[in-house]
Every structure is written in C-alpha cells, then in structure tokens.
Amino acid sequence: MEPPSPDLVVGEDGLSRPLWACRHDDLREYYDTEWGMPVRTEQGVFERLSLEGFQSGLSWATILRRREGFRRAFAGFDVDAVAAFGAQDVERLLADAGIIRHRGKIEATISNARAAIALRTQEGLGAAGDLPAGSTLADLVWSYRPARTPRPVRAAEVPTTSPESAALAKELRRRGFRFVGPTTMFALMEALGIVDTHLVGSHRRGSSGVWE
C-alpha cells in the first residue's frame, strides 16, 4: 500500500514512518515508543533539555547512542545531584568517552541544574501566566504549549522554531539557563509532546493523547 505522504516510508510491519526513523533500529525504536510522548517530570524534562543541548551541531543518533553513558555520567539527570557537581566533576566528564566531551556543554548542564533548583523558589511569568513559587522546570516548559499544533504532510513543512519556542528560550535565558535557543527549544517541545510534528499519515500521529 502506498504511504499517504511521499515523505513517509511503510515498513515491513506495515507502519508508516518518516525517513529519519527508518535508518537504524535504534532510531525506529525511539520514534515508535518515545519521541513525542508526554514527559512532565522535572528530571525527565531536565534530561531532554540537557541532551538537546549536547545535540546542537550533531545528529540525534549520535546522542541517542550515548544516552546511557550520559545517564551514568550525570547521575541519572537528577537535578539536585548535577547541581552539586564541581570542578573535579567537570574534569571527570571531560575524560568520559561515553558522552560528548564538550566543556561548554558540560558546564552549561551543571549551570542549568542550578537554574532549575532556583526556579522552584522563584515566581514569574510563563506563557500561561504567573508561575507560583514551587513550580518546576517541567511546569515552566509546559506552560508554553501552543493553542494548536502543526499538521505537516511533507517533511519540509515541519517547523524548526515557533513563537512559543522563541518565548520559552527567552524566558529560560532570563532565568539563567544556557544552550536554550529557539531551535533547540522547539526540538525539546517536539520530543516532550508539547507539539505534535509527526507527519500526517504516520502511525504515531496523535498518539500522545495531548493532541487529536
């Protein structure tokens, strides 16, 4: 059966996926089970924020294949644990072949953990209005969910930024976060299910329960 979009590939299992999710088994597994599914915990959002930062300038496959190494190196992305990392930890991480050894990104991850802790005691504006003290990084990021999601048919129709991702990036930078540009934040929003950019006709379109 022909796929509903020329940018979808029908696999041997009869399911339609975009080309990028068909290149390797690990990418297909990630696409089928995780990408675009809602993540609402502080730790989960911090992990994905961190990995998106490390991915900048690299392929997602490169990061995905080092994911367990990142988890070991960064204490499972426990915000409080990472925030306590010091200079010795930075040197340890720079010597860890299981991750991307980029000093700026390593230091930004530690700095972002500290900013996430500070966020819990701050009040301020998110996209949905005032965020009370005690709000987490997840609360802030999800407050930028748009009123509607894209409905791309072709891969070229998938946005790389949005007004919401630009506003989220600006707010995160105001709160001390780093490596959080509008493009990186849009990729984060896609990964977390805040927007659904699965191509129309993909077997994953609408599967998150966040969007119809």
Automatic annotation (TrEMBL):
SUPFAM superfamilies the record matches: DNA-glycosylase
Annotated residues for binding of Zn(2+): H198
Coiled-coil annotated residue ranges, if any: none
Classification via InterPro entries: Adenine_glyco (IPR005019), DNA-3mA_glycosylase (IPR052891), DNA_glycosylase (IPR011257)
Keyword Metal-binding found: yes
Highest taxon in the source lineage: Bacteria
Keyword Transcription: no
Alphabetical keyword list: Metal-binding, Zinc
GO MF terms, alphabetically ordered: DNA-3-methyladenine glycosylase activity; metal ion binding
Gene3D superfamilies: Hypothetical protein, domain 2 (1.10.340.30)
Gene Ontology process terms (BP): base-excision repair
UniProt name for this protein: 3-methyladenine DNA glycosylase
The organism of origin for this protein: Brachybacterium phenoliresistens
